[in-house]
Protein backbone atom coordinates (compact mmCIF):
# COMPACT_ATOMS: atom_id res chain seq x y z
CA UNK A 1 0.00 0.00 0.00
CA UNK A 2 1.68 3.21 -1.25
CA UNK A 3 5.09 1.52 -0.95
CA UNK A 4 4.85 1.43 2.85
CA UNK A 5 5.95 -1.76 4.59
CA UNK A 6 4.50 -3.26 7.75
CA UNK A 7 7.20 -1.89 10.04
CA UNK A 8 6.82 1.61 8.63
CA UNK A 9 3.05 1.45 9.07
CA UNK A 10 3.41 0.41 12.72
CA UNK A 11 5.88 3.28 13.27
CA UNK A 12 3.46 5.80 11.72
CA UNK A 13 0.62 4.47 13.90
CA UNK A 14 2.82 4.80 16.97
CA UNK A 15 3.69 8.42 16.14
CA UNK A 16 0.00 9.27 15.54
CA UNK A 17 -0.94 7.64 18.83
CA UNK A 18 1.75 9.60 20.66
CA UNK A 19 0.74 12.92 19.07
CA UNK A 20 -3.05 12.73 19.39
CA UNK A 21 -3.68 10.25 22.20
CA UNK A 22 -5.74 7.11 22.29
CA UNK A 23 -9.05 8.92 22.71
CA UNK A 24 -8.71 11.02 19.51
CA UNK A 25 -7.43 8.31 17.11
CA UNK A 26 -10.80 6.50 16.65
CA UNK A 27 -12.54 9.84 16.10
CA UNK A 28 -9.94 10.83 13.47
CA UNK A 29 -10.27 7.47 11.72
CA UNK A 30 -14.06 7.85 11.64
CA UNK A 31 -13.74 11.35 10.20
CA UNK A 32 -11.30 10.15 7.54
CA UNK A 33 -13.66 7.29 6.62
CA UNK A 34 -16.57 9.70 6.21
CA UNK A 35 -14.44 12.04 4.10
CA UNK A 36 -13.35 9.17 1.84
CA UNK A 37 -17.00 8.05 1.43
CA UNK A 38 -18.05 11.61 0.52
CA UNK A 39 -15.23 11.88 -2.00
CA UNK A 40 -16.23 8.57 -3.58
CA UNK A 41 -19.88 9.65 -3.79
CA UNK A 42 -18.91 13.00 -5.31
CA UNK A 43 -16.79 11.35 -8.02
CA UNK A 44 -19.59 8.90 -8.82
CA UNK A 45 -22.05 11.80 -9.11
CA UNK A 46 -19.71 13.66 -11.45
CA UNK A 47 -19.26 10.55 -13.61
CA UNK A 48 -23.00 10.00 -13.85
CA UNK A 49 -23.62 13.68 -14.77
CA UNK A 50 -21.00 13.49 -17.52
CA UNK A 51 -22.54 10.26 -18.83
CA UNK A 52 -26.03 11.83 -18.84
CA UNK A 53 -24.71 14.87 -20.72
CA UNK A 54 -23.02 12.71 -23.31
CA UNK A 55 -26.14 10.64 -23.85
CA UNK A 56 -28.31 13.78 -24.04
CA UNK A 57 -26.13 15.10 -26.88
CA UNK A 58 -26.49 11.85 -28.79
CA UNK A 59 -22.96 10.66 -28.28
CA UNK A 60 -22.40 7.12 -27.16
CA UNK A 61 -19.51 4.70 -27.27
CA UNK A 62 -20.42 3.44 -30.75
CA UNK A 63 -20.66 6.89 -32.33
CA UNK A 64 -17.40 7.96 -30.67
CA UNK A 65 -15.62 4.86 -31.95
CA UNK A 66 -17.05 5.51 -35.44
CA UNK A 67 -15.74 9.09 -35.32
CA UNK A 68 -12.29 8.04 -34.18
CA UNK A 69 -12.25 5.30 -36.84
CA UNK A 70 -13.08 7.84 -39.54
CA UNK A 71 -10.44 10.25 -38.27
CA UNK A 72 -7.82 7.51 -38.14
CA UNK A 73 -8.65 6.36 -41.69
CA UNK A 74 -8.34 9.93 -43.00
CA UNK A 75 -4.99 10.33 -41.25
CA UNK A 76 -3.77 7.04 -42.71
CA UNK A 77 -4.90 8.06 -46.20
CA UNK A 78 -3.11 11.42 -45.97
CA UNK A 79 0.01 9.72 -44.66
CA UNK A 80 0.02 7.22 -47.53
CA UNK A 81 -0.44 10.04 -50.05
CA UNK A 82 2.49 11.98 -48.61
CA UNK A 83 4.73 8.94 -48.40
CA UNK A 84 3.76 7.82 -51.88
CA UNK A 85 4.73 11.19 -53.36
CA UNK A 86 8.01 11.19 -51.44
CA UNK A 87 8.91 7.67 -52.61
CA UNK A 88 8.05 8.57 -56.20
CA UNK A 89 10.28 11.65 -56.06
CA UNK A 90 13.11 9.72 -54.42
CA UNK A 91 12.93 7.03 -57.11
CA UNK A 92 13.06 9.70 -59.85
CA UNK A 93 16.12 11.36 -58.26
CA UNK A 94 17.83 7.99 -57.92
CA UNK A 95 17.21 7.21 -61.60
CA UNK A 96 18.55 10.64 -62.61
CA UNK A 97 21.71 10.05 -60.60
CA UNK A 98 22.23 6.61 -62.12
CA UNK A 99 21.76 7.99 -65.65
CA UNK A 100 24.26 10.80 -65.11
CA UNK A 101 27.50 10.32 -67.06
CA UNK A 102 30.71 12.23 -67.41
CA UNK A 103 32.69 14.17 -64.87
CA UNK A 104 30.76 15.65 -62.03
CA UNK A 105 31.98 18.95 -60.66
CA UNK A 106 31.48 19.99 -57.11
CA UNK A 107 29.39 23.04 -56.68
CA UNK A 108 30.12 25.38 -53.81
From TrEMBL:
InterPro entries under this entry? TatA/B/E
- How does the protein's chain sit in the membrane according to the entry? Single-pass membrane protein
Checking Pfam families in the record gives: TatA_B_E
Origin superkingdom: Bacteria
Where, by residue number, does the polypeptide cross the bilayer?
A: 6-22
Arranged from A to Z, the UniProt key words for this protein are: Membrane, Protein transport, Translocation, Transmembrane, Transmembrane helix, Transport
Q: Name one GO biological process term.
A: protein transport
User: What cellular-component terms does GO give this entry?
Assistant: membrane
Where is the protein situated, by its record's location annotation? Membrane
Give the protein's recorded name: Sec-independent protein translocase protein TatA
Organism, scientific name = Flavobacterium degerlachei
Amino acid sequence: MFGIGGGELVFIMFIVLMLFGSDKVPEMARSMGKAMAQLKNATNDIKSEIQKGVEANGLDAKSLSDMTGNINSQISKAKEDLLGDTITQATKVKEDIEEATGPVKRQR
